[in-house]
């Protein structure tokens, strides 16, 4: 039977000390029994395309917030008056509807024998806000910040810069990967230090050659 080794708090600290795991900034208070909490950065992306044609480079807008952002369910009927009302009433910097991309403050580096999984906090699940869709897996050998796929499903949710948004669960592989994520030619997001849009068009365009 194959046994999976999830790193405990003791293991996480040992791996950080040894350099097998790098987290910057690192906060001792964010170390859980078998996870590490990560925080919401101030950079976001919204797409401007009416249709996501994945063979094309997607049009997007990147922006920063000073303090907070209100995420509304898609088709929340946001006209300019509603947006102004929300900003004035709830003192938020920006109001968006539909999905958007965010990023963690934390930049991580994984050795070739450590992989990770991002999970949104249960407290956000309880207000029907999801901070990742299908991209929770982080391969061994990855380095960079974590891009978050944020969607509110019920009512508008206000998120604040630097608040804890999710957690990383680290797993020790049975043997080191021969080629880590950032060393693969096909890897698209290695070393990202900001929120990044989908780059799947690179895959599809490569198939044409």
Automatic annotation (TrEMBL):
Enzyme Commission number(s) of this protein: 3.5.4.30
Domain of life: Archaea
Enzyme type, top EC level: hydrolase
Listed CDD domains: trimeric_dUTPase
Keywords of the record: Hydrolase, Nucleotide metabolism, Nucleotide-binding
Pfam families, sorted: DCD (PF22769)
Pathway: Pyrimidine metabolism; dUMP biosynthesis; dUMP from dCTP: step 1/1
Coiled coil: none
UniProt GO BP: dUMP biosynthetic process; dUTP biosynthetic process
Subunit-structure text: Homotrimer.
Family: Belongs to the dCTP deaminase family.
NCBIfam families in UniProt: dCTP_deam
Protein name: dCTP deaminase, dUMP-forming
Native source organism of the sequence: Methanothermococcus okinawensis (strain DSM 14208 / JCM 11175 / IH1)
Lineage: Archaea, Methanobacteriati, Methanobacteriota, Methanomada group, Methanococci
């Amino acid at each position: 039977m194959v046994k999976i080794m999830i790193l405990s708090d003791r293991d996480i600290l040992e791996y950080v000390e040894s350099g097998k795991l790098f987290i910057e900034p690192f906060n001792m208070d964010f170390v859980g029994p078998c996870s590490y909490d990560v925080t919401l950065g101030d950079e976001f992306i919204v797409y401007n395309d009416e249709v996501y044609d994945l063979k094309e480079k997607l049009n997007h807008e990147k922006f920063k917030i000073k303090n907070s952002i209100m995420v509304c369910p898609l088709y929340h009927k946001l006209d300019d008056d509603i947006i102004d009302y929300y900003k004035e009433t709830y003192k938020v910097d920006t109001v968006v509807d539909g999905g958007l991309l965010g990023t963690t403050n934390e930049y991580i580096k994984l050795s070739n024998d450590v992989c990770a999984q991002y999970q949104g906090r249960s407290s956000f699940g309880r207000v029907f806000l999801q901070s990742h869709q299908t991209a929770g897996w982080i391969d061994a050998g990855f380095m960079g910040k974590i891009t978050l796929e944020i969607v509110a499903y019920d009512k508008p949710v206000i998120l604040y810069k630097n608040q804890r948004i999710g957690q990383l669960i680290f797993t020790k592989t049975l043997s080191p990967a021969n080629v880590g994520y950032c060393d693969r030619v096909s890897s698209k997001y290695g070393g990202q230090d900001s929120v990044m849009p989908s780059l799947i068009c690179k895959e599809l365009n490569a198939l044409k050659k």
